[in-house]
Amino acid sequence: MSDTSADDFRTAARAAAELVSDYLDALPGRPVWQPMDPAARQALLTAPLPAEGLPLTGLLEVIGTQVMPAPMGNGNPRFFGWVNSAPAPAGVLATLAASAMNPSSAGGDHADVHLERAVVRWIAELVGFPHPAGGGILTSGTSMATILCLAAARNRAARRAGRDVRQDGLAGMPPLIAYATGETHSCVRKAVELLGLGSRHLRTVATDSDGRLDVTALATAVAEDRAAGLLPFLVVASAGTVGTGAVDAFEPIADLCAAEQLWLHVDGAYGAFGVLDASIAGQYAGMDRADSLALDPHKWLGVPVDCGCALVRDTEELRGTFSLVPSYLRDEAAGALGWFSEYGMEQTRPFRSLKVWATIAHRGRDGIAADIARCTALARRLGELVEADPELELLAPVRTSIVAFRYKPAGADENVVNAINKELPVEVQLRGRVFVTGALLDGREMLRACLLNAATTEADLELLLAEVRAAGAELTERRGGR
Ligand SMILES: *Cc1c(COP(=O)(O)O)cnc(C)c1O
After folding, report:
1. Which residues are CB-neighbours of 99 under 8 A, at least 6 positions away?
2. Domain 103-350, what fold?
């Protein structure tokens, strides 16, 4: 802050508060997303390294005119793309304070460290996951949380086979085998590859017609691998798949994992918080039996990016995987739980917990549960609207807050339908009124709308479908009729 006086900062901070408030106010009235103006894009890409500095208020001018006019779109209530939420205002405010404090939340006796212990416990309580003291850590997202959990699973399995992976690596061991489905998020395969397990040893287990892991097929695959002398060690189940929002049947999966001594990891990145809605909570039964659960406060909770979370049943498995502090040298002043840097990859760690704290504290458990329930109700309503529309087809039951559907005018040829639906998302996006993305489901191109924003209205849902129909008709016409 050498060239910045306290007064300069105060003046600029007030201006920043106005800028950000104006931005958030104006969002719902703007196009959800637009391609960037080529000149504006080029200006950002080719911005020269400045030799001389700008005053703080000059920075705000650039931010306000060159950056904030071109958002991704996810702050808008008519954004239904991927799994990207609008930022919780409380989290936005907290971000400023967190960066002003700028600690490293690796460990020590300062507020951020203790607050992280508390919010990890809150997250576990929200989703009903057991929480031994220290049983979790905030991460950049679920991709990183998955690496942490799967590393702990791998090390436990190897230890049981008489191997210390940290010291000896995996070479020479029979392959460790993991099980997931075709609906499982790609971060699981990335973690498997990175951890040296080999994606060849990640089995794709069949799913039922609802996209849920087929437990009978899982049991068969495990038995076959054991008979072949391999070492089954891990099952990854999903609490809300990205494609259709399906929730796996955790009870029978957990039974099998208990009988076979397999680590059960649940990917709840998007959907774990759905358990807060009493009307769909039943399908989450048994999620609390997992050995680890990865989830993303930066999705359904709206905590500003980035914030994921790894929850583990056996704290020592995680600490034993990452700690480089021999037990006899542990810093007693840090308490029995030690440092967060003993539970994951990051040493210097950002103050993520303040935005999580603010987001949860502002809404309270009941407010959050109401927001989640609103999203699932909106999703079911959207499903009904799709089903009532002769030009649209619902492709999966609405289980959480994702609606998988496609544009399918009567009598259209299946290949044409696929071709149109492949182009539809971008066509809809370019119109600027709503934003939706696509995916492949069993070889079929589809649209998937993800409801994460409690400010979305039923009129927004109707607009989404009207836009899909209009863009679909336009694409059909461009192809020269049906
Ligand atoms: C988003 C998502 C992930 C990846 O999480 P990141 O926070 O993007 O790293 C994994 N699984 C599911 C189901 C997701 O929705």
Report:
1. 351
2. Aspartate Aminotransferase; domain 2 (3.40.640)
